[in-house]
Amino acid sequence: MSVNFDGIPVNLPSHAHGQGYADLHFLIPEVIERVDISKGPYFAELGDFDTAGAVNLVTRDRIEHSQISAMTGLFPTLSGKRDDGSPRRFLGYRVLGIGTPSSGDFRPYFAAEVSGTGGPFLNSEKLQRYNLLGKGVYQLSPSTTVSLLATAYASSWTGSGQIPARLVEAGLLDRYGSIDPTEGGDTHRLQVITSFATRPDTRSSFSATLSALRYGLTLFNDFTFQTDDPVHGDEIEQDDQRTTLYASLRYDRLDRAGAVAFLTAIGAQFRFDDVAASLWKVERRVRLANCLGVENPCVSTQDRQTDAAVWMQEDLRPARFLRLVVGVREDLFNFDVQSTKPSGGLDPQHPDPLPPSVQRSIVSPKASVVVTPFEELDLYLNFGRGFHSNDARSAVESGGAGAVPAATGYEVGARARLFDGQLDLAAAAWRLDLDSELVWSGDAGGTEPAGATRRQGLDLEARWQILPWLYADLDVSLARSRFKADSGNGNAVALAPSRIVTGGLTVQHPSGIRASLRVRHVGPRPASQLTSEDPLDPADPGGPRVPPCSPALDASTAQGQRCYLVAEGYTVFDAAVGYATARWGVTLFAENLTNVSYREAQFGNVSRVIRASPDLRPGFVPEAHPVQDVHFTPGNPLALQLIGTVYF
Questions:
Q1: Average pLDDT over residues 48-71
Q2: Does the global pTM surpass 0.85?
Q3: What is the dihedral of CA 548, 550, 555, 558, to 10 degrees?
């Protein structure tokens, strides 16, 4: 998925933690005006990572009133203290200030946010986050504006990591405990964006945007514990330091030929990433001398990736009831990777010097048809080709093969607006074919390219304005995801959601009362490529089925026994109630209202626990073999937050 901020891509290619990594913690929610969402690879102006769809978070041009806001909260169901001595019941704090001139044509604003929490974990999260944002929009003339936006973000934390489900289910580890209490990291981000927009006449517009980003992340993870190295453990350090430059141009023009309207859009985009990425073997955050029998770091490269693109889109209205949208986009990539290891190789498994840089291009056609037989109903058909780039290191090492795999999407749907627009209903059936799937690698602590996949599903949505102050919404997504080829290890796409439901009720009463009740549901899904539908013996399709993985199979799975993993689903309710006036507001927010125990993030991989951590309970026995298991980060228990805001 493509993630954007004021039209600037947030996804980071060739990232040390995984291709396309996107961190949105630098955003301050109060300055976001809207979130634009698009489904599928059907829009020509969207490029890298626009496969399943895209989101664009758009900031406000101005803030009407300055404000100060403070939040505090608690976990009412927790007791005791964290390892740092702080009470586990205390949720944390957040302080926000936004300042803007009270009058004048030019009204820039500045926002500052400080927050921290220990989380519900026994091993205190020690999260500290700092955000600064400033934006100003200046009107050069009635038809021309320039804007400048700057953001600064820094954060540090200690993580409890992904813990093995087997130890929690056996009562040997608290679900908020940890195996390696030294996980965590720190990150920083500085970005400046400037934009120019003008309307030469009533039928055309032109815009230009420039962005410069300086980013850094140091991340400590331990996914397999003592599987590969029983002496020092398997903790790794991932480092990513980069500078990113981005530029875009866009021109729109509306013309008519008789009764036919033509809205033409053309654009060009350029992006350059200069990345210093490395992977280190560490023990308790201390770098070791060796990695897999060779010198540390395991991997260290200077990656330079360039993406230059041009695109065009034509939006035609040949009749009142018919709309045709056709577009095309071409991207040209250059991947250049220089190993900074003394050996000159990419990693211990690939010690040979890297080949020269490689170039690859991809053409992405798009087409949509929208039929409106009457004002209340739209019928549409979409086709589009998108893509995601793969890591520059794998692109260069493979000589460019599979560097920019395509994603081809198809969609047919309908949208109805009933009862004078009070009820909005939509349904769409879709299919998405990826030439190369990005899958999670527990050993590498990131993503890696895999085979071709096919996803197909059904999306349903409803919006109902029940009363002028009461609103209901519901979204349901059903999907099936499979690798196109089964190499004997099953063809399920691990962790791909099969059922997602979100919805709720929202109250915004003229008296100032605000309230909401929302639900989020994720259904169970495979955590491995094998499922209960696969045969135990690939040569005997009609024979016994694959069993679920369990600690009882630890020895046999270490020797190649086939088993399957399931990532549990969950249903969580959140609620909020508040009151607001022109001068002040107060809100009480309850996360996980029913206090269900659920797994927020889940991964299927092998691990082995030999050394006892402070959180392991009596009765733990060091494991003799690696065990295939689900590893998870728990979701928050019931959390209450009280937020107060003053406007001036």
A1: 97
A2: yes
A3: 60
